[in-house]
Amino acid sequence: MKTVFLTLLLGLVCAAQEAPAELDPSQITGDWHSILMAADNIQKIEEGGPLRAYIRQLECTDRCSSLSVNFYAKFPSQCTFLNVVAEREGDVYHVGYMGSNFFELIPVSENTLAVYGENFDGVKSTKVTQLLAKGDHATQEDIQQYEELNRERGIPIEHIEDLTQTDDCPQ
Length: 171
Fold this sequence. Notes:
Domain Lipocalin/cytosolic fatty-acid binding: 29-167
GO molecular function: odorant binding; small molecule binding
Mean pLDDT: 86
Order of helices and strands: HHEEEEEEEEEHE
Number of strands: 10
Keywords: Secreted, Signal, Transport
CATH architecture: Beta Barrel
InterPro entries: Calycin (IPR012674), Lipocalin (IPR002345), Lipocalin_CS (IPR022272), Lipocln_cytosolic_FA-bd_dom (IPR000566), OBP-like (IPR002448)
Largest sheet: 10 strands, antiparallel
CATH topology: Lipocalin
CATH superfamily: Calycin beta-barrel core domain
Radius of gyration: 18 Å
Main location: secreted
């Protein structure tokens, strides 16, 4: 009897699991601005760090199976415009930039989007997040959700960098 009950319970739990939400290209494609960034290896995202990026635009193609990302990086203090195209594999995107990167897009609100990724530079893996906004700021509620994402992924809150303070790259 216990086995039947446990099997039924497991079936109900599995049935209650939601399928991952399909990305809506109209919510993803457009102009975005990097607000916050965090990493478990803070050196990777500090000013001059290889993963510090100032996102400007995302563009979904073919129902978001490909994602074009326009952004600036500073090498060392000069803004350099870059474009990469990430390919979707399930719910995760893959792109080569400063190593191999896998990332997912996480809608936070109508005007904000979180990005969670892992970068492998050939030696070490680094967890990285960014909070993007359609404008030049995020609400306190969006920031709290972003902080929670970092906690869930094992990234210390004190590793969050405010990119709006150093973003002097062209719009």
